[in-house]
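Human: Can I borrow your eye for a moment on a structure tokenisation matter? Separate attempts, laid side by side, tell us more than any discussion would. Could you pick a protein and write out its sequence and tokenised fold? No explanation is needed for now; the record alone will do.

Assistant:
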Amino acid sequence: MTEPRKGDIGLTKIGGLAGAFVNFGQWFVGDFAPVQHALIYVGHGMVVQAMPSGAEILPLEEASPVVMWSTGLIELTAEQRSHIAYEAVKLVGTPYSFLDYLSIALERLGFRSKLIRERVMASGHLICSQLCVLAYERAGIDLFPGMFPGDQTPGDLYHLLKDLEDND
């Protein structure tokens, strides 16, 4: 297992009903992956992750075991890493919204209204993958150029990292 560095994205598996729900959703929208959750390593053994109770910061060992890190796959400067971690920590407390999964599904099925997009942007809610993408975006790194930042799932992050790994 790669040792994470500040600003790295970690991808995990989650069990239970939540994991099954995410698995089904990712399969349904065409981006099935062996992971269901994403988090950001912010240094000093801590991670930030979006959870149904709101985004939280916690020790890495208390999070779901990471099966893949972005370490060495996304080239980042020390300054970018610090900025990503800073932005992730600023998102602690952000509410979660299962409705964002519906928004992603509608987008993947070709239905995206301006009203839905504005609602997602204005809600201030984030799912785990959105938190990661937003922290990177606020640090000036666009992981998914041309895509609305609210439309990524943990599966999208997995496929991005696998593509980078395969091209390395």
User: Anything to note?
Assistant: The radius of gyration is 15 Å. The domain at 9-166 is CATH 3.90.1720 (endopeptidase fold (from Nostoc punctiforme)). Strands lie at 9-12, 37-43, 46-49, 56-59, 66-69. The chain has one domain: 9-166.
